[in-house]
Write a structure and sequence with these properties.
Blueprint: E1 18-25, H1 28-41, E2 47-49, E3 58-69, E4 74-82
Antiparallel strand pairs: 1-4, 2-3, 3-4
Length: about 80
């Protein structure tokens, strides 16, 4: 809700990551599926995601994304934020 975020310099949650990623989809079905997935999570429901070049999944939210449509593909530019719960 209210935009409150607790931040502390020490502790387990002090170094949560933010990722800027682009997901490229090449079919209308993939575009609809990814759009529906992001919309359903609404920027507040967390999901598991494995970042590139990482060996484990993390719990994340995607509060911001945009779609750029091209003749052959669509790019979803997403800000993925690691969360604790």
């Amino acid at each position: 809700g209210d935009g409150y975020q607790q931040r502390r310099p020490a502790g387990l949650n002090a170094q949560l990551k933010t990722f800027q990623v682009v997901f490229r989809v090449t079919t209308d079905a993939e575009r609809e599926a990814l759009s529906a997935f992001l919309s359903w999570h609404g920027g507040y429901r967390a999901f598991l995601w494995k970042p590139p070049k990482h060996n484990r999944t993390v719990r994340v939210v995607c509060r911001e994304w945009s779609i750029t449509d091209n003749a052959r593909y669509s790019d979803f530019s997403c800000t993925i934020e690691q969360v604790v719960n």
